[in-house]
Design goal:
Layout: E1 8-14, E2 18-24, E3 30-37, H1 38-41, E4 52-53, E5 60-63, H2 64-80, E6 88-95, E7 100-104, H3 107-112, H4 120-123, E8 132-134, H5 142-151, H6 155-162, H7 171-181, H8 183-187, E9 189-194, H9 195-204, E10 210-211, H10 212-215, E11 221-222, E12 227-228, H11 230-236, H12 240-244, E13 247-248, E14 253-256, H13 259-265, E15 272-274, E16 277-278, H14 279-286, E17 294-298, E18 302-308, E19 318-321, E20 329-335, H15 339-349, H16 354-363, E21 372-381, E22 384-391, H17 403-424, E23 435-438, H18 445-455, E24 459-461, H19 467-481, H20 488-491, E25 499-502, H21 508-526
Parallel strand pairs: 1-6, 6-15, 6-16, 10-13, 17-23, 23-24
Antiparallel strand pairs: 1-2, 2-3, 4-5, 5-8, 7-9, 11-12, 14-15, 17-18, 18-20, 19-20, 21-22, 24-25
Helix pairs in contact: 5-6, 5-7, 5-11, 7-11, 14-19, 15-17, 16-17, 16-18, 17-18, 17-21
The structure holds 5-deoxy-5-fluoro-D-xylulose (5FX).
Length: 535
């Protein structure tokens, strides 16, 4: 390799609010990190939290040239800081899932002939047929979702094919909307990328393929055969496969970084570009998730990442091809009622104090004497339900619980729901199962104790601030040896290990088995009739 010293690896993350980069050395130590915050550092694009919410409150986009200019800026920052690009042996990256970029006819020729004397945003300013890219926060395509589900025989059939029922943010439905509302724009488009493959294209100075994993977030890819679904493509827009190009394994080496970066920044001609993927899949790699593990992000909404061998696609949650093992899958489950309801119950029942909240969990018994609760201040998507519903040990609805019982009912209910819906997607708790908890509530040991008891598994915490970037740097190393069938975990043995926080209370599993059954039965009673919700 041409790099003059010990090799470095980069991970990029084109996320919703910022562009982040992290550099690690061969010992996986972080040696550089930087970011460009779209709102703050690129005010000329006028975004709020990285996006534009349109007047219909449903359409949400981001300017594609903002992403391009952010890359110019971060590379200039790195160059000014004396970062030695020549040390970089390989890099990979991630993008917010589902977002899409529309390259105008002729853009590939411009990409191939970039002058190293000019910044990318000047060179590429005429390359996009859609200047405001739809992103994952968009929910304006319900019509297209219903049409796609109808075309393939219903929501469950679509989930069986692509891993998810039709979702407004998923790319196929966004493409269908552009085709139906602006057919001339669609015709002028020679290539459609995801944010991840768009970013890889910038570095290759040629169109990069979509990877299996991020491609699973489009409602267009057959997740078992890992080929585009002709029925789904045809239901969205004509000639779509040609515009999407091929799909590739997420660990593929796509080629070397283009001459533009060698001449303008000093990258080595041998620096390899490893397939870019979605941000959540990259985080799974960054947390070093293995088969049987669960990652739970306890934030505004609670999100579960699961490593699954044999998925059972359902009408809720999402199954994606696995980003680090193409024989496996990952599932993503999102629960909208996360920290906000925990804070509301804390305020109502623990005088706004987390210490009081924790004391209530300590002074109430595992299983809460059979009291169960469902706490959905906002419409929940997993499952489709809303409102507060309390049941005593005899399954009778009750109007309220004592404060400490209410607190435990909330936390036990939130975690029982997570276990029930994870197992519905095909997840199986194994003897080696670990729960990796992140997010605000993961700092509360008593909350984690309930999580451990409900799942009957040890709970670890791990810093995920840069998990997507780190995951991409790890995947860059893995991509260089992927053909040797070395696993990612083997490649990143030296990476920081998660910290064990709690283990299950003895006997908890026997207590929760009947409760989980009751909870699942009662949940069916509180569902509301689904009104074309595809979030
Ligand atoms: O839509 C999502 C996953 O399905 C979000 O988590 C985006 O990936 C965030 F960028």
């Amino acid at each position: 390799m041409a790099a003059s010293e010990a090799p470095w690896y980069l991970g990029w993350d084109f996320s919703t609010q910022q562009l982040k980069v992290i550099a690690i050395d061969e010992q996986l130590r972080v040696i550089y990190e930087d970011n460009i915050h779209f709102d703050k550092d690129l005010p000329e694009f006028g975004t709020h939290c990285g996006v534009h919410v349109h007047s219909d409150k449903l359409t949400v986009t981001s300017p594609v040239l903002m992403w391009v200019k952010a890359l110019d800026m971060i590379l200039e920052k790195m160059k000014s800081s004396g970062f030695k690009f020549s040390h970089v042996r390989a890099f990979s990256g991630a993008g917010q899932q589902h977002g899409s970029v529309y390259w105008k006819e002729g853009a590939s020729q411009i990409l191939k002939n970039l002058s190293p004397d000019l910044p990318l945003h000047q060179l590429l300013k005429a390359c996009f047929s859609v200047s405001d890219s739809p992103v994952w926060m968009d929910s304006s395509t319900t019509t297209q979702c219903l049409s796609l589900e109808k075309a393939v025989g219903g929501a469950q059939n679509l989930a069986n094919i692509t891993g998810s029922r039709a979702c407004e943010r998923f790319t196929g439905n966004q493409i269908a909307k552009i085709y139906s509302q602006n057919p001339e724009v669609y015709v002028q488009t020679e290539r459609i990328s995801l944010v991840s493959s768009f970013a890889a294209s910038l570095f290759l100075s040629a169109y990069a393929p979509i990877d299996y994993c991020d491609g699973s977030g489009m409602n267009l890819l057959q997740i078992h055969d890992k080929i585009w679904s002709t029925a789904c493509l045809n239901a969205c827009a004509p000639g779509l496969e040609e515009k999407l190009g091929p799909v590739v394994p997420s660990s593929s080496v796509l080629g070397s970084v283009s001459p533009y970066y060698i001449q303008r920044y000093g990258f080595s001609p041998d620096c390899k570009v490893v397939t870019f993927t979605g941000d959540n899949p990259a985080s799974l790699a960054g947390m070093k998730l293995e088969e049987g593990d669960i990652a739970i992000s306890l934030g505004t909404s609670d999100t579960l990442f699961l490593w699954i061998k044999e998925p059972a696609p359902a009408l809720e949650g999402h199954i994606f091809c696995n980003p680090v093992d193409s024989r496996a899958y990952m599932a993503l489950l999102c629960f909208k009622n996360g920290s906000l309801i925990r804070e509301r119950i804390r305020d109502d029942c623990a005088s706004g104090s987390w210490d009081e909240f924790s004391k209530a969990l300590k002074c109430t018994v595992v299983g809460n004497n059979g009291n169960l609760g469902f706490y959905f201040d906002v419409i929940e998507i997993t499952p489709e339900a809303v409102g507060i519903h309390r049941f005593n040990r005899d399954n009778n609805k009750v109007p309220d619980f004592p404060k400490e019982v209410e607190i435990r009912a909330l936390i036990e209910g939130q975690f029982m729901a997570k276990r029930i819906h994870a197992e519905k997607l095909g997840y199986k708790i194994m003897p080696r199962t670990r729960i990796l908890a992140t997010g605000g509530a993961s700092y509360n040991k008593e909350i984690l104790q309930v999580l451990s008891d409900v799942f009957s598994a040890p709970v670890y915490t791990i810093d995920t601030a840069n998990s997507a970037c780190l995951g991409c740097a790890y995947r860059a190393i893995h991509g260089l040896v992927a053909e040797t069938s070395v696993s990612l975990v083997d490649v990143v043995k030296l990476a920081p290990e998660p910290r064990l926080v709690v283990t299950p209370t003895t006997g908890a599993d026997q207590l929760y088995q009947p409760l989980l059954k009751r909870y699942a039965e009662l949940e069916q009673k509180i569902l509301y009739s689904p009104v074309s919700s595809h979030l």
